[in-house]
Amino acid sequence: MKIPAHLPLAVLVAAFALTACSGDVSGDGGDEGPAAGEAAAMDIETAKAEAAGNMPLGSVPGTVTLPPEARVAVTAPFPGAAVQIFVIEGESVRRGQPLAVVRAAEPLRIGGDLARANSELQVAEAQAARVATLADEGIVASARADEARARLEQARATLAENRRLAALAGAGPDGTMTLRAPITGRLSHVGVETGGPVDLAVAPFVIEAANAYRLDLSLPERLAGRVKPGMPVEVQLPGSGDAAAVTARGRIISVSPSIDPQTRSVMAKATIESVPGLVAGQNVLAAIASPAGPSEGVSVPSHAVTRIGGQPHVFVRGNGGFEPRAVTLAADAGDRAIISEGLAAGETIATSGIPELKAAAE
């Protein structure tokens, strides 16, 4: 700085003092990192890392499916035409609820056969009794009585067969049959329309029991030998509106013995309980818990973890502000991330302003 020579001595001293102070301030500001400057300019929210009592092995993608026994097809015992349908696809039904009315010609024929079989049985009973009396009196041979009894048993068998067919049809006098729901659940398929044909080859209705689900999991290669049947799994479902998040729990039931050469992953299946918001076909993230016993690790909010250079990082508060620190992410389930290395329980991390801190760090 150029100082005019005619200024008084006191002014010169003050000028040099200001110059020195200005230089000190500039030097102090240079010591603080860019993340610290961002933190000073923003109101950063923080949280402490919490100890995780039983650290998961990892989080893997999965698809919610139904177990094989959860689907039941409703079929008609005889071909016919749908004259009335009471339900729509996706509707919840209870056991025994009418689904449709089908009219068929076969029940009418069965009704006629049943009436004839009943008449033939009455004739056979009377004839057998008469021949038995004659045989006892010695008028006819006993072989005639045996033949009459055989015809009686045949008539009884024919009547019983026609009664079973009539009960199977459940038909009225006009040949109409009412198809009913065999279980309580949800109609996943309605394959018939009013006036349309109903045959034996295709089920007009399929009902899903929504009280149990399965998870089809895709395990990464690193977990191929570590995941075993019986290990617990958890799926966190976000809440809607004012509803809180829901956690569904289950267990591994099977693990494929081989690795898929295309995806380099291992398929596994797990049971999962039925909770609100869980539907078949839904894609979820499942956390697989480690075997019983304590394991080291910390839990932090998921949104506090970011990636820098492809590696997971968190911003840890220090003396000079927030500094990025590389960590090892064990699992990320719902709103909590589990860190196995790089962060200790009790350390304070940033939970807001992450994009700004990341931009300053880069």
Characterise this structure:
The structure is a single chain. The protein is of the alpha+beta class and 362 residues long. It has four domains: 35-55 and 296-361, conserved putative lor/sdh protein from methanococcus maripaludis s2 fold; 58-67 and 212-289, Elongation Factor Tu (Ef-tu), domain 3 (Beta Barrel), CATH 2.40.30.170; 68-104 and 179-207, OB fold (Dihydrolipoamide Acetyltransferase, E2P), CATH 2.40.50.100; 106-170, Helix Hairpins (Orthogonal Bundle), CATH 1.10.287. The protein has five helices and 23 strands. It has helices at residues 9-31, 34-41, 106-136, 142-169, 354-361, and strands spanning 46-48, 50-51, 56-65, 71-74, 80-85, 92-93, 98-103, 176-180, 185-190, 197-198, 205-208, 213-220, 232-237, 246-255, 265-272, 283-289, 298-301, 306-308, 311-318, 321-326, 328-333, 336-341, 348-350. It has a six-stranded antiparallel barrel. Strands 2-17-22-21 form a four-stranded antiparallel beta sheet, with no helix packed on it. Helix 2 (34-41) runs antiparallel to helix 5 (354-361) and helix 3 runs antiparallel to helix 4 (142-169). 24% of the residues are buried. The model is unreliable at 1-37 (pLDDT under 50).
